[in-house]
Each structure stands twice: as C-alpha cells, then as structure tokens.
Amino acid sequence: RSPIFDNNCERCERLAYHLHHKNFNHRDNSRENLQRLCVICHSKIHGISPEVSNLKTLVILRDRLIKLKNVLLSQSRGFSGIELTVPVLWGEEYHRIRKEIMSMEREIKSAVTLHDEWRFFGTIKGVGYISGAKLIAYLKPNKFSTVSKMWRYSGLDATRIKRRKTMSKKELIQYGV
Q1: Distances in Å between the alpha carbon of 97 and those of 1, 4, 21, 30?
Q2: What pTM was computed for the model?
Q3: pLDDT digits (tens, 9 = 90+) for 108-164
Q4: Residues paired with residue 21 on neighbouring β-strands, in sequence order
Q5: Which of 6, 49, 97, 157 is close enough to 152 for a disulfide, judged by CB 3.0 to 4.6 Å?
Q6: Quick one: DSSP state of residue 86?
Q7: Euclidean distance between CA atoms 172 and 162, whole angstroms
Q8: Given phi > 0 = left and psi -120 to 50 = alpha, else beta, which region is 93?
Q9: What tens digit of pLDDT does each residue of 42-63 get?
C-alpha cells in the first residue's frame, strides 16, 4: 500500500499514513495545525493498538474508493443517457478502482483475522470480513463485558425497541427516542 504522503511521520520518521490535528480544534485545517503521522503514532494518540488503527485506515480507504467507483459509474450512465460516448479514461479508471477495492478487501480479510475479536464475529451468521473489520475498528468490542451491551451501545438492542411504550421519560431522553 502506498502512503497518503510521500513524507515521514513528524514524530518518529516512519512513513506517514495519517493527517492529524496538532491541537483539538478540528475546525482549524490550516497547515500549521496539521501533522503527518505513521500508524503507530496515530494509534498512541487515540489509545488504540496499531493493528486496529491500520484496520480502520483500510476500512476508510475502501469505503472512499467505493464512493469514487460509484461516481464514475453514475457519470458513465449519465453520458449514455444523453447519447454521448463515455470517455475511455473513465472506463479504465473504473476498472482500476475495482481492482484496488478487491485488493483492499483481501488486505482487510488478512488483517481482521489477526484480531482476537474476529473469533467471535466470525461465528455470527451474516457478519463477513468487512463488517467484522468495521465493528472491530469502530466499536472496540473488547471494552464490552457482554454482547448485549455492545448491541445496546450500537442502538440495536431489541428489548429497547419492543418496550418503547413502557419506557420512562428519562430512558426516552437517554436513548434519543
């Protein structure tokens, strides 16, 4: 995988894959407030393991590539709808992005199977490598003592949905119902 930047991490001189704010003002996107970080330094800032940080990077990049692929596809359909020929470059780029997405999915598959949490998610019907990677990268499932607590945190707790009518006002406000 090629880095986002050709430069090194500003903390340790490894290849930089992340652009991160120096202070916590996320609205200030000036060059002075942004720093290039490697996966390890980025994970230290957020208190997660480098493996999880790498997995999250892969998931984000894959999702953005899918958006690019869909834009090219819809633009191509628009061209054919007004009886114009689709530029050859767009078709080539579309196929190149598809190959890159497949390559990224193979990389995600190999990265997600290294996580202990995958032993649990891999047994659930309907949770594939990509869904499992997203759950591991965004939810940090090892912080939940039970599965039901994780589903509740995610807003997928079935008991809350069933008993909405009998909830107290405090619970309704707490869960944003």
Answers
A1: 14, 16, 29, 30
A2: 0.70
A3: 999 999 888 888 888 888 888 998 899 888 887 777 888 778 877 777 666 655 566
A4: 34
A5: 157
A6: P
A7: 13
A8: alpha
A9: 888 877 888 888 888 899 999 9
